[in-house]
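hiii, so i know i said id send this last week but things got crazy w the move. better late than never?? heres the sequnce for the chain we talked about at the cafe, plus the structure i predicted for it. fair warning i was half asleep when i ran it
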Amino acid sequence: MSNILETIAEATKIRVNESKKVRSLEDIKSEALSMPKGDFSFEKALASKGMSFICECKKASPSKGIIAEDFPYLEIAKSYEEAGASAISVLTEPQWFKGELKFLEEISSSVKIPTLRKDFTVDEYIIYEAKLSGAGAVLLICSILDASSLKAYIDICDELGLSALVEAHDEMEVDMAVKAGARIIGVNNRDLKTFTVDPTNCLRLRAKVPSDILFVGESGVKTPEDIKTLLDNGVDAVLIGESMMRATDKVAFLNHLKELI
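okay and structure toks below
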């Protein structure tokens, strides 16, 4: 494999195929479609005035290894809600991020704010699973999808009432996301091929995204100054992972990040 993103995507395909042996796509799709349609709560939360904060629950990452040895995920999620987070991102990828679907299920049923299933969506199965697990949104990464799959997955999300956070890393991927009909585009400052972080990446690409599309800055956000710079440049929301997870007092840390806005 040429990079970690492709490696994870290939491993995810194997994981999904194993899941399909336990429960077929037809079965999970039928159940998801029989549920009440979602109300796109995730994008509504991000569209509110000012900067919206998506706080992440993750135990580990490929670049940092184990981030939280002790991982009381429900307690963490509730502290995010108490701190005024707009939404919670929950890692469900098991191998590199040590995530589990049960984290998403339990968090979604324990908080009132919407949840995002953070995984490597390489199959529609993952979207139906997210719906059954109570998620309000799923992550769609342009780097691991072709244009037709991206459009098809956005259409499935629309049918279920789920929001799609479409992640791009460069101009070509932003263009792909816009053409596919994305209503929320997240630009990751972390290059998922090398894991280096360039905090200016989302600022540079903001101008390429129409103003009626919600824009999320991801990775490398650590200070109140970072937040103010993003807000001043038309960024609607930030996704904060590692720095949030490492904060001992998560309520105090989120309040600190809001100091200049």
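btw The two ends are 43 Å apart (CA to CA). thought thatd interest u
miss u guys!!
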